[in-house]
Design brief:
The protein is of the alpha/beta class. It has helices at about 15-25, 30-45, 55-65, 80-90, 135-145, 200-205, 210-215, 235-245, 250-265, 295-305, 325-330, 340, 355-370; strands at about 45-50, 70-75, 95, 120-125, 145-150, 160, 165, 170-175, 190, 280, 290, 330, 345-350. Strand 2, helix 4 (about 80-90) and strand 3 form a beta-alpha-beta unit.
């Protein structure tokens, strides 16, 4: 059976684990957390904080920008639930916006009509590691005096016009869940692109205390300063993630090779649509998907691939049609693409250990379905 996903292991984990045992410091902000943070700070040229999940990074942002009951957050309906729920727990109302049929990203042309006097932020989701139209979105947000939050959970190592995704808006987030290109089982990253928020973010991450400043010698007392929670991962998580950052370019190169093998093999099948990569975007091969004519055909090909020993999945029931989405939000404009495209999409296996020969077999199985 070709699984849909196999979490990355690089072979460096045992070596780094032994080093962690030797050091003997297991709670957060130790040797490996510092190594990971340094890697991201230098790679992204932004201030970063390692978190327990991408969800928690988004929840930190909700605290940082002081979300209050009644504030509105613009979010694409086609996304994972925490792109919205991180703000609803603070009382925000969600305004869902349609997606583009080509990239599955938020339709930038529909955002302006969704902005009201209550709008506090726009959450853009870089689906499959392919960038949203950030220049337009950032300029629109500046004119409306609202924040831009990049949910770049799937987009580590992707860029927009040469700039790393997650570094273009006011804030960005990455996910290190085991389904992602780089992982530590569960983990995330908060990217802070506005220096004004750095000090407050450190306080929120350390349960509302000034512990980080105290440990650096910048405060003579360790005390409770503000709201916060336990957003700091253990050294075990940081160690595991660092084992992949040490070979990050190698992992990225392999995934791009697999993605291109899919694209080349499937590009001549007229019955399916393939991913669209915009000219401004350089993606990270987080995902390879195909689009079928409708949900019925998609379900048939899932069963066909399963009979061939291949696991394939779909995801994201549009949030605006979910029970809680209906309760805490509304859809701005018409749902032209969100529901229709969500019912056509099928994700194929892509992970570091997958072999090109296995990609060929999967593609042959898809061709056989249509023949």
């Amino acid at each position: 059976m070709i699984e849909f996903n196999v979490p990355v292991q690089t072979g460096k984990e045992i070596e780094n684990f032994n080093e962690l045992i030797r050091i003997g410091h297991f709670c957060g902000d130790g040797f490996f957390t510092k190594k990971v943070t340094q890697w991201f700070d230098e790679s992204l040229n932004s201030k970063t904080l390692l978190t327990t999940s991408c969800t928690h990074a988004l929840e930190m942002i909700a605290l940082l920008i002081n979300i209050q009951p009644g504030d509105e957050i613009i979010v694409p309906s086609y996304t994972f639930v925490t792109s919205a729920s991180a703000f609803t727990i603070r009382g925000a109302r969600i305004v869902f916006v349609d997606i583009r049929a080509d990239t599955m990203n938020i339709d930038e042309s529909k955002i302006k009509a969704a902005i009201t006097s209550k709008t506090k932020a726009i959450v853009v989701v870089h689906y499959a590691g392919i960038s949203c139209e950030m220049d337009y979105i950032v300029n629109l947000a500046k004119s409306a005096n609202i924040y831009v939050i990049e949910d770049a959970a799937q987009a580590m190592m992707s860029t927009y016009k040469g700039r790393p995704l997650g570094t273009i808006g006011d804030f960005g987030t990455y996910s290190f869940h085991e389904t992602k290109n780089y992982h530590c089982g569960e983990g995330g990253l908060l990217i802070i692109n506005n220096k004004y928020f750095i000090h407050k973010a450190e306080i929120i991450r350390e349960k509302g205390t000034n512990r980080a400043q105290f440990l650096r010698g910048g405060a003579d007392k360790y005390t409770w300063i503000d709201q916060g929670s336990s957003f700091l991962p253990s050294e075990l998580n940081a160690m595991f993630l660092y084992s992949q950052l040490q070979v990050a370019k190698k992992i990225n190169k392999k995934r791009l090779l697999l993605w291109q093998a899919y694209y080349d093999n499937l590009s001549k099948i007229n019955e399916i649509d393939l991913p669209v990569v915009t000219r401004a975007s350089k993606h990270n091969a987080h995902m390879f998907y195909i689009k079928l004519s409708d949900r019925v055909e998609r379900d048939k090909i899932i069963r066909h691939l399963k009979s061939k020993g291949v696991s394939s999945v779909f995801h994201y029931i549009p949030l605006h049609s979910s029970p809680y989405g209906k309760k805490i939000g509304n859809f701005s404009g018409l749902d032209l693409n969100t529901t229709r495209e969500s019912e056509r999409i099928l994700r194929l296996p892509i992970f570091y250990q997958l072999q090109v020969g296995e990609v060929q077999y999967i593609c042959d199985s898809i061709k056989g379905f249509f023949e």
